[in-house]
From TrEMBL:
Entry's localization field: Membrane
InterPro entries: EmrE-like, Mg_trans_NIPA
Segment forming the signal sequence: none
Membrane-protein topology: Multi-pass membrane protein
Protein name in the entry: Magnesium transporter
GO MF assignments: magnesium ion transmembrane transporter activity
Membrane-traversing stretches: 6-27, 52-70, 76-94, 106-125, 145-166, 229-251, 263-284, 290-312
GO CC list: membrane
Pfam families listed in its UniProt record: Mg_trans_NIPA
SUPFAM superfamilies with a match to the protein in the record: Multidrug resistance efflux transporter EmrE
Listed Gene3D superfamilies: 1.10.3730.20
Main subcellular localisation: membrane
Length: 336
């Protein structure tokens, strides 16, 4: 258990990290919107836009600090509401910075998303004791985990490859759209963003698995005097963490460049938590520790969260499921 003062500091840091991450994602989305409003010849890559760079750095730093203060220190009863609050902050910043309308429908949808997030985050985690590197290797060698990991990786790679192919086709036709194809155009763009965000969340869950494993080894090294960093496999684990962390940042940015944050962030959150749950069940062989009612609560949470997303994204005039981007005439003319 953490001392009361340190516990309070950890909660405050986690909340602050959630606020900063929500602000940073919205800042990046704002930069993408401004850049998309420019003619093709004047558009700039993300790294050449100061606003996007600032948002990216803020998100990355807040993500790292928040993870350090939460993994292994805060109980699920605290982590779940903090994760849900991140979605509330996301809706607030979307209203303030992007001009998204905040109506009764927005309030209802956000409430459903928060409820679903609490259910998923609160019941979708099973506690696991610390392991040595030898224990982790044995867990990785299990045939059931190898088969599971191979299937998951296949679907992630295939899904991302298909998304990239569709995006390339989309880019070739987006400047020759007719008025009749606007709804289809906006839906395709949103679907591409959601696809990148959901698959990126699955990669992020793998980064979390590597981070938890690395933290276990670090705790054993520092507090129990069992140096786990003299083994090459430990550094292979660190390398895997870095690669997956960079990939999830890349695909999250791809997602927010194509889809509104009020839609993408909740689905990303849902995909991440559900993927973390199944990764833990398969990797740590936790099936005997998971109660049937936990699975029911998680499934119900998914239904509630997705319902909230559908409420937010519904537009009666367009008759479409996903939020369309603002008309080009209403977008700012300056790139940020």
């Amino acid at each position: 258990m953490l001392p009361d003062k340190l516990y309070g500091v950890t909660v405050c840091v986690s909340l602050a990290a959630s606020v900063i991450q929500a602000f940073a994602i919205t800042l990046q989305r704002r930069s993408h919107i401004f850049n998309d409003a420019e003619p093709p010849e004047l558009q700039r890559s993300a790294f050449r836009r100061p606003t996007w760079v600032a948002g990216f750095l803020m998100y990355t730093i807040a993500n790292i600090i928040g993870s350090i203060f939460t993994i292994g220190y805060l109980p699920i009863v605290v982590l779940a509401p903090i994760g849900a609050m991140n979605l509330v902050f996301n809706a607030i910043f979307a209203k303030v910075m992007l001009g998204d309308p905040f109506t009764k429908r927005t309030a209802y949808g956000t409430a459903l998303i928060v409820l679903g997030a609490v259910l998923i985050g609160g019941f979708g985690v099973v506690q696991e004791p610390n392991h040595t590197l030898e224990d982790l290797i044995q867990l990785y060698k299990r045939p059931a985990f190898i088969a599971y990991f191979a299937v998951v990786e296949f679907f992630i790679v295939a899904g991302l490859a298909a998304t990239h192919i569709v995006e390339n086709k989309y880019k070739r036709i987006q400047f020759s759209l007719t008025d009749q194809s606007i709804v289809s155009h906006t839906n395709t763009k949103a679907l591409l963003g959601i696809s990148y965000g959901v698959f990126g969340a699955n990669i992020s869950s793998q980064a979390m698995l590597f981070a938890k494993s690395g933290l276990e080894l670090l705790i054993l090294t520092i507090f129990q005097g069992q140096n786990q960093f003299i083994y090459p496999l430990t550094w292979l684990l660190v390398a895997a963490l870095i690669v997956t962390a960079l990939l999830q940042l890349y695909y999250l940015n791809k997602g927010i460049s194509l889809c509104d944050t009020v839609i993408l962030v909740p689905l990303n959150f849902c995909s991440f938590n559900v993927s973390c749950l199944f990764n833990g069940l398969m990797y740590y062989d936790q099936w005997e520790r998971l109660f049937w009612w936990q699975i029911v609560c998680v499934l119900f949470g998914i239904v509630v969260l997705v319902s909230g997303v559908l409420v937010l994204s519904w537009r009666s005039m367009a008759g479409a499921i996903f939020l369309a981007d603002d008309d080009d005439d209403n977008k700012p003319a300056a790139s940020q």
